[in-house]
Design a protein that fits this description.
Elements (H helix, E strand, L loop, with lengths): L3 H18 L2 H17 L1 H8 L5 H14 L6 H12 L6 H16 L1 E8 L5 H15 L2 E8 L7 E5 L2 E4 L2 H14 L1
Parallel strand pairs: 1-2
Antiparallel strand pairs: 1-3, 3-4
Membrane topology: Peripheral membrane protein
GO molecular function: proton-transporting ATP synthase activity, rotational mechanism
Subcellular location: Cell inner membrane
Length: 182
């Protein structure tokens, strides 16, 4: 298992530098994109974490991936990625990206939420749901949507550790439990 405290140190340092430059959101987006590219390609992951490859080979791969990201990457992120190559810490990249995003959200007063519905939600319904969740949590809520036909209907929203479940599937399960108890 990856030592999260190491990833946290790199994420915090990158956040501090990105915040000073006023580029936190851009760095977060680019770091997530970079980590996603690496995570989705097993060969890239192997090159970046396998000790059989030299630092120079890893650095060339990292530089190539940075160039492949649309719009390039911020200088602070590029320097951090080069440092990770130099220190053989690229195995922590996914955790660094996740922790960076979480810390940036916390610093900005945001919280991420996941909305699951049986069918795609219209934009106005999603906006209304987001506004309701913001009122409940007293924070700016960023929603990610997902479709799960097994819900049958309704919506399930998780914000932080709190689950708001208004799905028909859950309501049917509750009715089944109540009927069994009688």
């Amino acid at each position: 298992m990856v030592n999260v405290s190491i990833a946290r140190r790199y994420a915090r340092a990158l956040l501090d530098v990105a915040s000073e430059a006023g580029r936190t959101d851009a760095v977060a987006e680019q770091l997530t994109a970079f980590a996603d590219v690496i995570a989705k390609n097993a060969e890239l992951t192997d090159v970046l974490v396998n000790p059989a490859y030299t630092r120079e080979q890893r650095l060339r791969v990292v530089e190539s991936v940075m160039q492949a990201i649309p719009g390039g990457v911020e200088a602070t992120l590029a320097n951090t990625l080069r440092l990770l190559v130099d220190r053989n810490r690229l195995g922590y990249l996914a955790d660094i990206a996740r922790l960076f995003r979480d810390m940036a959200d916390a610093r900005a007063g945001r919280v991420r939420g996941h909305v699951t519905s049986a069918a795609p939600l219209p934009a106005d319904a999603l906006a209304q749901l987001q506004q309701t969740l913001q009122q409940l949590t007293q924070r700016n809520v960023l929603l990610e949507t997902r479709v799960d036909p097994s819900l049958l209907g309704g919506v399930s929203a998780q914000v932080g550790s709190i689950l708001y479940d208004g799905s028909i599937r859950t309501q049917l399960e509750e009715m089944r439990r109540e009927l069994k108890q009688r």
